[in-house]
Amino acid sequence: MNAEMLVIALLVFASVLLLLRAARGAYIDWRASFTEHARVTLADMFLFIDPRRLFRLNLLMFMLLPLLVWLLSGAPVLALLAGLLGAGLPRLAWVVMRHRRASRLVQQLPDGLTMMAGALRAGASLQNALDLLVRESPAPLSQEFSLLLREQRLGLALEDSLRGMGQRLKMEEIDLFVSALTIAKEVGGNLSEILERLSSALRAKAVMEGKIRALTSQGKLQGIIVGLLPIFLAAILYVMDPPAMMPLFTTLYGWGAMAAIAVLLVLGAFFIRKIVSIDV
């Protein structure tokens, strides 16, 4: 009997040790992936924050948010979902920040191109036109072109600098600007006129996209309301009759129903987004 207990204890100890080693390896991989992604993403947005501090904040959120949800609701499934939300919240925040920055850049680009075209028409060189754009434009347009100008002053070829800007930003408007400058440098032509026409085309494109957003805003709002309605109703029913709603959070059938609802909501949001998304 003692020998069997010893063997069981050794097996339990070995299992716990293996689990701890696996958890440590997963933690190290997660930390490395998080910090590298944070460093690259924040550097692209010209935000110079220590990624290790962000990782510690994310780890604290990952630990405290599930605990708080579990203490308030007593539902392990909700606590697990809260943990996943806490782990993925920084990446979601980066996506939102990148999207807003890209929107501001698109809004500022036509004015910047008009400014460059005016400087070139007045007899300034391309370097001087870029320098004027950097000095007179707000961020983020000035940040991106300041990096382009610094690369030029360090001796990097214009084509390489433009290619790096296009790969970093991955925006159709920037790709058009890069193509215009590259072609004008290779085959010649009136660069100021090219930039002026590109600026007018980008303004017309922005106006058309604004009209499309106005026409599709109702569909997007309907999708948001339909997506949030089940969550709102579940919260109301939980407040009105908690015992009747508890099986939804504490039983296997309830977890299955919640999983099915989540999948259907995601599919509905995906199809609504596809319907109201129109490329210009």
From TrEMBL:
Keywords (A to Z) from UniProt: Cell membrane, Membrane, Transmembrane, Transmembrane helix
Xref: InterPro entries: T2SS_GspF_dom, T2SS_GspF_sf
Gene Ontology CC terms, in alphabetical order: plasma membrane
Statement: the UniProt record of this protein carries the keyword Repeat: no
Topology relative to the membrane: Multi-pass membrane protein
Gene3D superfamilies referenced in this protein's UniProt entry, alphabetically: Type II secretion system (T2SS), domain F (1.20.81.30)
Main subcellular location of this protein, as a coarse class: membrane
Location(s), subcellular: Cell membrane
Pfam families with a match to the protein in the record: T2SSF
Type II secretion system protein GspF domain segment(s): 114-238
Spans traversing the lipid bilayer: 67-94, 221-240, 252-272
Matches recorded under PANTHER family: INTEGRAL MEMBRANE PROTEIN-RELATED, PILUS ASSEMBLY PROTEIN
Name by which UniProt lists this protein: Type II secretion system F family protein
Native species: Ideonella aquatica
